[in-house]
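the two lines:
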Amino acid sequence: QSVLTQPPSASGIPGQRVTISCSGSNSNIGTNNLYWYQQLPGTAPKLLIYSDSQRPSGVPDRFSGSKSGTSASLAISGLRSEDEADYYCATWDDSLSGPVFGGGTKLAVL
Amino acid sequence: QVQLQESGPGLVKPSETLSLTCTVSGASISTYYWGWIRQTPGKGLEWIAYMFYSGKPNYNPSLKGRLTMAVDTSNNQFSLKLSSVTAADTAVYYCVRQTGLTPQYDFWGQGTLVTVSS
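prediction for all of em together
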């Protein structure tokens, strides 16, 4: 019962492009920037995208983020086996005065 | 390089208080916001608390009343106390560096598993 809604799973084959969606409301995604995190097994989440579509230094340009209204998407192009991980979206919620997260999407590279 | 390291008991009895400390190296705690996030298999990532070193802590309303967060500038550490714990508080607890009033966490601790059990 996370505030932001993500599909629980996604999959793709190497080289393919996959997208992961994240939906919320006017009090969160609709008025605040969106962030994406990648969590590899047994490790802490790592910032992948900030401010809707910006990549931190070191994040490959295969990863891209977009936002429209109360929904956002993470796209991964040229899928690689090392992209197999859990992906979380996050944003600020004005009603909560704090951050909210999606439930996470487990990406499988077949 | 900024590093964060959580420390504290891995096992806490029900109704007792969970206490964690995060030691920051490579950066002064007297800048940025600092926070705590936990992760459970059932609920995913959950924000717990955040604060600026010189400000008042902000707590997740769902946990408010049980939380105390503090910053110790002399030791470059910050801490979390969660009282009256139950099995539902069993989780991996992460300390993080937060960029302003955003969920931008550039640096995370490795996480520490806290199990609530008698």
